[in-house]
Amino acid sequence: MDADHGVVDPAVSLQSAGLEDGDNLTAIVIHPKVAATIRAFALFCGDGNRVVTWGHPGDGGDSSEVQDQLNGVQQVQATDFAFAAILADGSLVTWGNPGCGGDGSEVQDQLKGVQQVQATSGAFAAILADGLVVTWGSPGEGGDSSEVQDQLQGVQQIQATGHSFAAILADGSLVTWGDPGFGGESSEVQDQLKAVQQIQATYSAFAAILADGSVVTWGNPGEGGDSSEVQDQLKGVQQIQATSGAFAAILADGSVVTWGDPGYGGDSSEVQDQLNCVQQIQATHTAFAAILADGLVVTWGDPGCGGDISEVQDQLKGVQQIQATHCAFAAILADGSVVTWGNPGEGGDSSAVADQFAYV
Fold first, then answer.
1. Of 130, 146, 173, which residue sits at a domain end?
2. Which of 95, 211, 313, 324 is deepest in the core (most CB within 10 A)?
């Protein structure tokens, strides 16, 4: 350092760091991530050593009792009233409403080598490194897996409705538990659930894509559990997306098939002729938005939650990605600009920050 000016000599700084002129440096920027219960947020920062929570204290907004344990956070998952954080060493820290997963003390000694956590409204399910599963929280919402525990081996993936879980095993079979009315009971379709590749869920029903591209559904019939009316169309399915009450499947030819509650996007008949060459579908609570191959967007479902795109239709060109809140959509365009629509109070109105988009 120059004693007269307090300026660091770049050459000296590089050498002290073990670097020479011409060496290549790579900077990795890790953005903060946020998780949410119904009434609280948890923000975990890029270094994984700090979690900031706010909102209703009893629903996860106060993490002071576990703050010293929240080091090396890799992922945070949430029920409606509690949080669970996976740490770098594979252990887990929970806080929030004890009856809804905030108290994991009874299974804490089992929570080692945690790879993934999934949540219903009131319970958590953790996949361990050895493929076993540990559950806790509200028993009626999937927190009690004792009846199927001996089947939960070699688990690859878990999906959840509001009150039940479904786990894909290494052999492609499926195990379900939780509230029967929310998909926790799959006995009627169990013989069909073979070579399962992917599961998607509404609030009370599941849809499984099989290796041959067909689909099996179960759970609440009115919210997607009954796909009998479109079953002959569900061939070559590549991807399924869901609102809280309906499913939308993208087929191999880029067309889309929908079923479930019409008010939640289960009826796409008004836009069906536009749903060609669909690349991606995103969903709010009650509406769908599909990106086409030419970068245009087609929406359907509840108008107030993003199903009506008429006010921004002329702006939605060259769309690259769409993300959704509970009741609004945000689309990133090829030029980096952002277009939003849906419920103004839930992100549909971005006019107050529009001038900042250029810096993102």
1. 173
2. 95
Distance CA 174, CA 186 (A): 9
- How would you write the pLDDT of the chain (360 residues) with one tens digit per residue? 333 444 444 444 445 445 566 666 555 455 567 788 888 878 886 566 778 888 889 999 999 999 999 999 999 999 999 999 999 999 999 999 999 999 999 999 999 999 999 999 999 999 999 999 999 999 999 999 999 999 999 999 999 999 999 999 999 999 999 999 999 999 999 999 999 999 999 999 999 999 999 999 999 999 999 999 999 999 999 999 999 999 999 999 999 999 999 999 999 999 999 999 999 999 999 999 999 999 999 999 999 999 999 999 999 999 999 988 788 999 989 988 889 999 888 888 887 777 766 545
In a domain, 12, yes or no: no
- Of 113, 141, 173, the one marking the end of a domain is 173
Report yes or no on 58 lying in a domain.
Answer: yes
- Residue 258 located in a structural domain: no
Q: Order of strands, edge to edge, in the sheet holding 51-55?
A: 33-36, 40-44, 51-55
Domain housing 68: 26-173
151 and 278, same domain (yes or no): no
Closest of 229, 253, 227, 226 to residue 239, by C-alpha:
253
Extract long-range pairs of 303-312: CB within 8 Å, 24+ residues apart: 304/342, 304/343, 305/342, 305/343, 306/341, 306/342, 306/343, 306/348, 307/265, 308/341, 309/341, 311/341, 312/339, 312/340, 312/341
The domain tally of the chain equals: 2
Q: Could you tell me if residue 6 is inside a domain? A: no
- CA dihedral in degrees (285, 52, 87, 206; nearest 10)? -10
pTM of the complete model: 0.84
CATH of the domain at 81: 2.130.10.30
Q: How far is CA 108 from CA 91, 140, 320, in A?
A: 9, 20, 42
| Rounded-to-integer distance, Cα 252 and Cα 105, Å | 46
Distance CA 150, CA 292 (A): 44
- Same domain for 148 and 276: no
Q: Which residues is 176 bridged to in the sheet? A: 166
